[in-house]
Amino acid sequence: MDESTKRLLQRLIRRIPTQMLRTTLDKWGRLTGGQLHSMDFTQSKWALTEKLLAICEENELAVKHITELEMIYIIDNPNQGMWYAFQLMDPEDDAHSVELTQFKEQFKSHLRELIRHVSVKIKKHTDEAVWIRIAWGDTFSRPNHMKPTYVVHSLQTPYVFVTSLTSKQKPLLSQALVLSTRYQAIKDANLSGRKLTAIRDLLMRQYHQVFPTRYPTPLAENNPAVSNQHIEKEQAESAANRLQAACEAFGGGMLPQLQSAVYKLETKFRDHSNKTMTEREEPFRCVVKFASTNLLESLRHCASSGIASTPVTPLLSSIPLKGKNYFVITDNGPGPSSQMRQPQK
Amino acid sequence: MSLLKPFSKLPGLCTANILLVESEEQFQQSLADALVEETAVTVNVRLAKSLPLPMENEESRPRIDLVVFIINLTSELSFQSAEASLKYLDPGYFLGKVCFMVTNARNASVPTERLDAVRKLAASLNCPLLFAEDQTPDGVTNATERLLTILKVAAGLVPMATALYLSNLTRCTVPPDIDQPSFD
Lengths: 345, 184
Known about the structure:
heterodimer; A: alpha+beta; S-adenosylmethionine decarboxylase; Ubiquitin-like (UB roll); six-stranded antiparallel β-sheet; disordered C terminus; B: five-stranded parallel β-sheet; 5 helices; CENP-NAC/CAD_complex (chain A); Chl4/mis15/CENP-N (chain A)
């Protein structure tokens, strides 16, 4: 093991919490039962790292084995860093018949054609998603395993999720992905968040959606907590209507956890009392950002408690509807009433 | 527009009815749960987001003895909603059967003007202004006790005391120099 491999292992062990270390090493399966037993997990991280380094030395493990361990840890704990969603466009005829081995080979060979020094590792997770770990190098340097890019793609779906990708590497990855998945183009889906599962659920519509019905469910069924006969809500019906409208807009039950929504406004300034600004030719640029630990939940609460009026404005309800949290709003047409939203990019 | 009237219905035996109006519908729920615990009299609680109350409940609604407007000082909307609701009350209520309850007054982000506005509002209507803590169970119990005291008088369950008499003693007054800029 050379110096950089040791550093990689040290850093990795530092990142894994002590209580998870044992199960992660178990899954890794590179240590024999005796070696696992000889490790005392009550010791400090530093002592554990030293011990593990000695064992790895003994087993003659190389970089690729260490990256395997890292992948196992990341797959189990994907909610680190920002994940960005991309959407594949225009499938070719055989796009639906791409299978794992073919995809693996294709992706690796396409990426190697574009850039010489790159280390790719592909692993299939139990939930059908393919996890790709890419360590990038450049023309003169070897792949840097300290800053790998992770790509998650479920075959036969048009969505790809990427974390820690620099703008320099983006075209390379895009091209390799497009070619190996048999699509024709890839575009930014304008959705990002800290939770991989959340943005995946949002894009693939895997959350509890509520649809308008002519026969709404009886209120008693929805909140069984209201029991005391001495307490009565005067406006229970309108509250139920608001809740229904809010759930129709944002979904019911547990919602995917989004952290932010950004609206970039490029519209003309309109205010009759401020003539100088209104008469300006160029659009008034500003950015509106909503941030919360669970943005959709907050918005639903705003609507259901009446802080925001219902029906919910399409600006907010298009977050779950279109699966985006980055919008560019521009003017369409000259009249002040024809203000249209047009998400771009 | 339907006015809520204080004497349009007959009172029940040993019952007191209170109406809690709060635009955010958070604190009123915990208050209501605490209020109905009272054993000496039967307390009926009606919860509303704002006034006017819907017509279809007119029949089932008992005589309301006390109307409480809960205002969350951190939200301008809460104050505006309470202010807008006031005009749906019969003037008879303002003879001691209305009180204001303010929450979050200790919050640092509250502009002082808003508290002044609430005080002026309460003073102009000759209503008591109560301050409550809505985050702690102790605060809820405390607020409940104070409301119950007023409610029992307003419902006519306390001999020798009337709502009008009590409100003369408890109504909010505004110091004459409230509009003066402070010098500290």
